[in-house]
Write a structure and sequence with these properties.
The protein is of the alpha/beta class. It folds into two domains: 215 residues, P-loop containing nucleotide triphosphate hydrolases (Rossmann fold), CATH 3.40.50.300; 60 residues, Alpha-L RNA-binding motif (Alpha-Beta Plaits), CATH 3.30.70. Helices cover 37% and strands 26% of the residues. The protein is built from twelve helices and 13 strands. The strands form three sheets. The protein has a six-stranded mixed sheet with strand order 5-6-7-3-8-9, with helices on both faces. A hairpin with a 2-residue loop joins strand 1 and strand 2. Helix 3 packs across helix 4 and helix 8 crosses helix 11. The chain starts with a strand and ends in a 6-residue tail after the last helix. The protein binds adenosine-5'-triphosphate (ATP). Adenosine-5'-triphosphate (ATP) binds next to strand 2 and helix 1. It comes from Nesterenkonia halobia. This is ATP-binding cassette domain-containing protein.
Length: 320
């Protein structure tokens, strides 16, 4: 379990992480999303004890990492896949790491097998592809058999096969009951990988909720309607906050009303319906809306630290 409480980090006049609180729980994949510079890497570095918080705390299983006697057995991290000695083989790299942390050689064989590195393990790291480097990073993170794993952008630059492999590995690690905390820019990838999301924008938590709730809450209601009386119904639905887009003579899409409201209105005006289908917003849509809102309310210096009343009132539970 990872717990951040009022975590804050400033570098000179830059506030990289601003009063951030969240929990990444065991048995699930917690996705850590946010635009460039949102503060994801800084948060992860503080979790690993590589940077000190200016205020607040981030703990792994209730303690700061430096307070654990055997940190590698508590948490494994892939923060920078390139941080290896290129002249060594993958197996040598893992053996050195294991030896310096009192971990037996058998575990090195185990993690090589777990990450499918058998054939590459005897080759020099200098010749590794990006995907093989990523596997080596994950193998190193798993050496201490830790209950908590932190992966910073683990699929960046990987080919589709590599992306799929990381996704399956991450899901499996959570299924084993581990805490998996993973950052990414890739919304579609997170939608397939994470159970829960923490979204950062300019150092602040914008949302902290199950992935499905984020899609439901932030996505605007959209409904596909097919009716032989399409133009009558479109006239009846027309309002200031409603967008109507015709697809053909009988079919149109409504944004801003839910299916129940459209159905009731159709009955009132006597329009015969052939289809009434709620359309799900994609995670990408929800994410863009959330981060866009953050940028807007931060752009005015006078309201920099105050969420506007209408945004606060409209925010669903978990969206801050
Ligand atoms: N060592 C540092 N010194 C000064 N500023 C820093 C330092 N590390 C990070 N920052 C600043 O803190 C902010 C957050 O950076 P961070 O790398 O944590 O964001 P990120 O969400 O990981 O972004 P990206 O996805 O681009 O890696 C940025 O404005 C960055 O320039």
């Amino acid at each position: 379990m990872i717990t951040a409480e009022s975590l804050t980090k400033t570098y000179g006049s830059t506030t990289a992480v601003d009063d951030v609180s969240f929990t990444a729980e065991p048995g699930r994949v917690t996705g850590f999303l946010g635009p460039n510079g949102a503060g994801k890497s800084t948060t992860m570095r503080m979790a690993m004890g590589l940077d000190r918080p200016t205020r607040g705390s981030i703990t792994v299983n209730g303690r700061r990492l430096v307070e654990h006697r055997a940190p590698l057995r508590e948490v494994g991290a892939v923060l920078d896949a390139g941080a290896t000695h290129p002249g060594r083989t993958g197996r040598q790299h893992l053996q050195v790491l294991a030896a310096t942390h009192g971990i037996g050689r058998r575990r090195v064989d185990d993690v090589i097998e777990l990450t499918g590195m058998e054939s590459a393990a005897t080759k020099r790291i200098a010749g590794y592809s990006l995907g093989m480097n990523q596997r080596l990073g994950i193998a190193a993170a798993l050496l201490g058999d830790p209950a908590t794993l932190i992966f910073d952008e683990p699929v960046n630059g990987l080919d589709p096969e590599g992306v799929r492999w990381v996704r399956q590995m991450v899901r499996q690690l959570a299924a084993e009951g581990r805490t998996v905390f993973i950052s990414s820019h890739l919304m579609a990838e997170m939608a397939q990988t994470a159970d829960h999301l923490v979204v950062l924008g300019r150092g602040r938590v914008l949302a902290d909720m199950p992935i499905q709730d984020l899609i439901d809450a932030s996505g605007e209601a959209r409904v596909l309607v097919r009716s032989q009386d399409a133009s009558t119904l479109m006239n009846a639905l027309s309002a200031q906050d409603v967008t109507l887009v015709a697809r053909d003579a009988e079919t149109f899409e409504v944004t801003g009303l839910d299916a129940r409201t459209v159905g009731r209105r159709a009955q009132e005006v006597g329009a015969v319906l052939h289809e009434l289908t709620p359309l799900q917003s994609s995670l990408e849509d929800s994410y863009m809306k959330l981060t866009d809102h953050a940028v807007q309310y931060r752009s005015g210096a006078a309201v920099a630290d105050v969420a506007p009343a209408d945004a606060a009132a409209a925010a669903p539970e978990g969206v801050r």
